[in-house]
């Protein structure tokens, strides 16, 4: 473990502030708030009796409905599109009303934003408005409502991270960074700043941000930590003491931490923040295959790594998976920071290593993954894919794709395989913005390929720190479902096509050393066979010594390690967890503090787990709708009597409101 390392890069404060003022003025023209009766709210209210959403197709597409010790108080339909809803946060107003803030992923691109739902009566929630994302923006992990008291602001804030779904010649249509709303009166929100962030790359717009979290100190300062999707320095820290004029004060790549999950992809994804009993402030960064990194942010301008979680040599639930999948996605401490519950978001129950069959690399086994939304390799006639490879560039919509015939004759048991590169990102030879992984798969499918391999880019390889790192990301656009999709490291992309690996950032203009593969280059024949490694689950970590976080237990559902549930039942991975700890923004102290953990488990439903003995967690209750669920986010609140209720966002439907009805741990 490491302590005392400083890891900040001085921010370009003046430049960023000037850019923010210009960007904010422009973006004010393209944002808006819709009242409950106005445009921007795409679906009518729903209730437990009328929400027939059947989210994963026929009965074979989800787990059977099941309920134990959980009461569904109500639900409200917020979308008519699959995969449209993202995260959820909740906050009580000064006069006692409760409002939920539910992210909209923009399934139809221009519809992104945040749904505002009044659930003061949790049995009768109703829509109270919609905060429109500007242009082609949308909202995913970064949705947080909290009360803030600083020298410059007193009231309630909504913090949103911004991403976008379509390129535009107008930078205002491609929001990045963070947006701050004054939600002191939730039915009349006031925009404080729009799409402020790190302007280093683009100048006229901020880098995209997948998640953000804010905190308010007793000294009257407020801060935000946000993911930077586009730079190796992927944790940005802002001073929002004056939320109308935020300042970027630090950015870091969390250097030197161990990257020991399968895939070696080091990328920050989400946060928890807590003031420890000794008064120091700590930010837990979910850093994917690097696990969870404890960063002291008492002075956010000088963040310091104090704890570095390490995955075991082999997975504790599926012992044949060596190393564990990784994918540290999110998590929360308990009230005194002695225990941390973290979620591994593994959306593919298979790993699919590649074996090179001929050429200079013959016999080498290359670590690789499989996208969870493409045709499974295990469903091919012989349970594997194999064949010749060809390089196809970036494979974005409209790009040319080499014809399958360029591979030459295929054997009777061979598949046609094309490799694209992730991105483009930070590549002056192709200054476009990156397209979705699913765009690349679709390009290969439409050209007739049976397998699409997506290789990581220079940024994903951390500029060469993790050359074999790969990332099988989520689906952002439709695919045909005719091709398998694999992901590999950047190093293999070079070596497979006879090039010396290079990771220079930015990419050298003109490729002077001819180090990048050329469009149409032929590579070796390869073979890939899926190996079951289970779905993502939760890990319990003893953090009583911040410098030595130690995994002490795992939290699973019965289907986690059962190959019979590898396909046909939706995504059976965990996504997010809430650990009640007396947070005043979540209703204050309550009877379940430090005793229970509440999980959004995708199609595994809503889960309640006893963590009173952290080394021996036990499920106490669950809810799976008879038509299936696709739970993403979870948030804590209280009812009119101050009793605990829990909100869960369903990606295909909207918002569910639950009460745990079972006994509390003694």
From TrEMBL:
<dbReference type="Pfam" id="PF08309">
    <property type="entry name" value="LVIVD"/>
</dbReference>
<feature type="region of interest" description="Disordered">
    <location>
        <begin position="38"/>
        <end position="66"/>
    </location>
</feature>
<dbReference type="InterPro" id="IPR013211">
    <property type="entry name" value="LVIVD"/>
</dbReference>
<protein>
    <recommendedName>
        <fullName>PA domain-containing protein</fullName>
    </recommendedName>
</protein>
<feature type="signal peptide">
    <location>
        <begin position="1"/>
        <end position="36"/>
    </location>
</feature>
<keyword id="KW-0732">Signal</keyword>
């Amino acid at each position: 473990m490491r302590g005392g390392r400083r890891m900040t890069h001085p921010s370009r404060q003046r430049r960023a502030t000037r850019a923010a003022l210009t960007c904010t003025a422009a973006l004010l023209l393209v944002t808006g708030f819709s009242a409950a009766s106005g445009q921007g709210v795409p679906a009518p209210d729903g209730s437990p009796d009328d929400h027939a959403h059947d989210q994963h197709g026929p009965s074979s597409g989800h787990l059977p409905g099941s309920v134990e010790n959980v009461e569904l108080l109500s639900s409200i339909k917020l979308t008519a599109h699959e995969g449209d809803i993202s995260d959820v946060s909740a906050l009580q107003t000064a006069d006692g009303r409760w409002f939920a803030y539910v992210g909209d992923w923009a399934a139809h691109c221009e519809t992104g934003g945040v749904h505002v739902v009044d659930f003061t009566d949790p049995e009768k929630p109703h829509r109270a408005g919609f905060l429109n994302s500007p242009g082609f923006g949308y909202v995913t992990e970064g949705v947080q409502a909290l009360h803030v008291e600083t020298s410059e602001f007193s009231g309630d804030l909504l913090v949103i991270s911004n991403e976008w779904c379509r390129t535009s010649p107008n930078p205002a249509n491609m929001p990045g960074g963070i947006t701050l709303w004054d939600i002191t009166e939730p039915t009349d929100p006031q925009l404080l700043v729009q799409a402020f962030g790190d302007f280093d790359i683009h100048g006229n717009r901020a880098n995209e941000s997948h998640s953000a979290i804010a905190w308010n100190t007793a000294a009257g300062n407020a801060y935000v930590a946000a993911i930077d999707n586009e730079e190796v320095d992927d944790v940005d820290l802002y001073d929002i003491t004056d939320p109308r004029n935020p300042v970027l004060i630090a950015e870091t790549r969390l250097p030197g931490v161990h990257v020991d999950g399968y895939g070696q992809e080091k990328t920050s994804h989400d946060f928890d923040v807590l003031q420890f009993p000794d008064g120091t402030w700590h930010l837990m960064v979910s850093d994917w295959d690097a696990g969870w990194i404890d960063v002291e942010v008492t002075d956010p301008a000088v963040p310091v790594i104090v704890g570095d979680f390490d995955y075991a040599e082999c997975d504790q639930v599926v012992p044949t998976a060596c190393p564990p999948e990784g994918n540290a996605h999110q998590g929360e401490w308990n009230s005194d920071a002695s225990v941390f519950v973290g979620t591994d978001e593994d959306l593919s129950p298979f790993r699919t290593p590649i074996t090179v069959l001929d050429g200079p690399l013959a016999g080498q086994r290359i670590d690789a993954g499989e996208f969870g939304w493409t045709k499974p390799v295990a469903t091919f006639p012989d349970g594997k894919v194999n064949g010749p490879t060809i390089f196809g560039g970036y494979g974005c919509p409209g790009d040319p794709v080499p014809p399958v015939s360029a591979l030459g004759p295929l054997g009777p048991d061979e598949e046609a395989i094309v490799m694209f590169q992730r991105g483009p990102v930070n590549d002056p030879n192709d200054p476009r913005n990156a397209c979705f992984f699913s765009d690349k798969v679709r390009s290969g499918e439409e050209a007739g390929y049976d397998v699409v391999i997506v290789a990581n880019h220079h940024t994903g390889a951390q500029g060469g720190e993790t050359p074999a790192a790969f990332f099988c990301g989520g689906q952002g656009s439709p695919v045909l479902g005719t091709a398998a999709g694999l992901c590999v490291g950047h190093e293999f992309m070079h070596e497979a096509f006879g090039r010396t690996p290079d990771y220079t950032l930015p990419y050298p203009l003109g490729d002077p050393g001819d180090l990048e593969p050329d469009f149409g280059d032929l590579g070796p024949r390869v073979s890939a066979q899926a190996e079951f490694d289970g779905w993502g689950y939760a890990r319990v970590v003893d953090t009583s010594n911040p410098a030595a976080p130690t995994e002490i237990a795992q939290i699973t559902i019965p289907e986690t390690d059962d190959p019979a549930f590898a396909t046909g039942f939706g995504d059976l991975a965990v996504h997010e967890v809430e650990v009640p700890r007396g947070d005043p923004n979540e209703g204050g102290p309550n009877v379940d503090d430090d005793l229970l953990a509440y999980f959004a488990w995708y199609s595994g439903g809503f889960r309640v787990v006893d963590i009173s003995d952290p080394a021996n967690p036990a499920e106490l209750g669950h809810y799976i709708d008879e038509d299936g669920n696709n739970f993403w986010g979870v948030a804590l609140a209280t009812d009119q009597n101050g009793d605990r209720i829990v909100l869960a966002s369903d990606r295909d439907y909207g918002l569910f409101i639950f009460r745990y009805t079972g006994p509390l741990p003694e």
